[in-house]
Amino acid sequence: MRIALAGNPNSGKTTLFNAITGRIEHVGNWPGVTVAKKEGDVKRELNRTGSTIRAVDLPGAYSISPFTSEECITSNFIRDEDPDVIINIVDAASLRRSLFFTTQLLELGIPVVIALNKIDQVKRKGITINTDKLAEKLKCKVIETSSTRKKGLAELIAAAAEVRGKGQEAPFSSPAGLDDTDRAGVEAADRERFAFVDKLVEEVEVRKIDSSRLTIQDAVDRIVAHKIWGIPIFAVVIFAVFSISQVWLGPLLADYFVGWIDGLYAYVEGLLGDGVSPLLSALLLDGIIGGVGAVVGFLPLIMVMFFLLALLEDCGYMARVAVVMDRYLKKVGLSGRSIIPMILGTGCAIPGVMATRTIRDPRQRRTTAMLTPFMPCGAKLPVIALFAGVFFKDAAWVGTTMYFMGIAIVIVGALIIRRIVRESPVRSFFIMELPEYRLPSIKRAFISMMSRAKAFIIKAGTIILVCNALVHIMQAFTWSFQPVEEGMQSTSILATLATPFAVLLIPLGFGAWQLAAAALTGFIAKENVVGTLAVVYSISNFIDTEEFVLVSGAGDVAAVLGLTSVSALAYLMFNLFTPPCFAAIGAMNAEMGSRKWLWAAIGFQFGMGYTVAYLVYQIGTLITTGSFGNAVIPGFLAVAFFIGLLIHLMHRKEQRASAGVKEVA
Amino acid sequence: MELAITNLLFNRKAKNRKLDAVKQQNLTHAKVNCTYNIRGIDTEDKCMKDFLFTLGCFEGEKVTVISVLADNYIIHVKDARYSIDKELARAILI
Amino acid sequence: MWQNIIVFLVIGAIIAGAIAKIVIDRKNGVKCSGCPYSKECSTAGMCSSQTDLETDK
Questions:
Q1: Tens digits of per-residue pLDDT, B35-82?
Q2: Which of A186, A604, A612, A621 has its CA 20 to 30 A from that of A13?
Q3: Contact status of C13 with chain A (Cβ, < 8 Å)
Q4: A329 and A356 in contact (C-beta within 8 Å)?
Q5: Do the domain assignments include residue C9?
Q6: CA–CA separation, B70 vs A493, rounded Å?
Q7: Smallest Cα distance from B23 to chain A, Å
Q8: ipTM reported for the complex surpasses 0.85
């Protein structure tokens, strides 16, 4: 049998879904984390029927009549796919609003079981609900649940199994023969429906505290979502996240972890012995173990960071960040909704870009899809950690700056795109339910961290591994498939392929082919930047750098890479703010639905990354050494061309107000 | 040009004839922590109106502005809280 | 020589395994192996709806 989980946004559907199926879907303490339906089988220990029960988690909806794309999925599923039972998850704290949807569900004739969720929170607030009376009035079973504490779940499933096939009586029906296009009629019926709900709630609920008053939560909100202080507070929070993950706790764990990787390296080295061809052993040791090891070495740092970010999301802070950011995004012509793809983009740009689907206005949707990849995603964290560690003594400001640079570029980018592309006459508005602050659950954060860590390891063991092996082979052989001779590295396949690109990067302060190759492999997956650097410079350990000094005697990693602090920063920014990995570009293509926009986006991202790196390198060099860096003039010409092109496009838009789409940059 | 303006004025008039009678006070003018009765939703956007309706935000209902955060208004309607932007707050007449 | 063959096979097996995983994932609709939640569109979108000009006519 199939049961559908339906309810208002942020009523805890996905948490309940995870609790009854044992799956790990992304849950956030804010409305609308689920956008597509998800299916899973109910766990054996909760299911006493003996047959499989399939649960379908649907996106949140406020009513059966769809106003948003998420609501559309929900109402279509319930109407067309005919689930056996609907479990309606109701946030017990807001019955007045939630039961509106419930009464609509009850009219469909499909048996409904109500899960009165968050019941523990409600009791703490001094609200008592007469469940029996509610069940009697609504003519369906009502089960008190708490999905976060896993209470009432077995009862809920048992109740659902029991009512299967029984049909459903509606406590309130809209007048028969009501036509959906009859606006006045529908509105009148809905008004009555609300009146019915109000009366019902009056009878079953006793509230001791009037929740329309200012609470401590609101007082906190006034500070963290303050007009002026909101951003600095967010900066401090991000700084703290980087400090803990990169300066305090992260390296501590990473040291152990890297020790194991080094141990593995030494063990395999011993196993191979002298009889093996040096080419093969180098491929296995430096290419595969070294390259993957260098990336995986950052896992502890990243896990700590994922853990902290999961805590922030769980406690309800990220929803406040959305409120603070909304204001700025509005000013640059984006929708308030654009903030969600961007926050998701800090995890991975792909779901971020996909989330732009919920923005209806095409211009805003495409602009958001174009700008979301500028947010530093999880794959870019090892790159940030590497450069912060090697060049800036693990300073937490490096990562924080990259986040805020990302935000700044998004804002500047949005301003530019708005001036190039005709503004659509669509007005958008933004409404969001602010979830209550709650004590973040260590367990939930731990589960979220582990699932992301698993994903990271899978990625390192697949894409990164294959890339590193290829990079190693390409740098070990010449075009005539002869092994590269000692001291003749520039004849390798990799070097000859990367050198033309390296020339372009001279004005940015990093003209070495090795660095160009690393940046290029970064388009396959950004972690590859770390892996490729490890392979081409034969560094397997970027974290325990003191040990490295002893081994190589070449001073330190910074000296091996041949970068100054300024050019390292420029290189880091170039990698972060150029186009994202191919998978993310694929997602952009899917959401933009226009080749023209896609190429314009890639061109814009590339130009942006180049310009930012150029400015950082040249201005930074001017400040630190008193003169400009390498090839200042050619770089200036390239940057001037890019900016000139943008200005030209802006002008053209002003002249031809009818020009619809941005030309290929 | 002239036509456009006339058109605009005419449309306005037709749509807001009823609303001109009441004082155009919307949620942005509301005092924090005071409960108001919603007098109506003034928007040309049918979708916005219908959506607000499903939240229980329609004339005759009570609304409280709990606080103003950045440019967002935190409102309390039907025992639930939402953060709405200025655009929406302007549409809710009290 | 036999050591070389073994090492070669081991490396081959590792890479083949990695490629096989990528290919299987792709068949299952995962666009990017190991990217968190890249399979489904999971969004923390919110309830907003926007003006369609047609709706008013």
A1: 888 888 877 777 677 778 877 888 888 888 888 877 788 888 887 778
A2: A186
A3: no
A4: no
A5: yes
A6: 55
A7: 24
A8: no
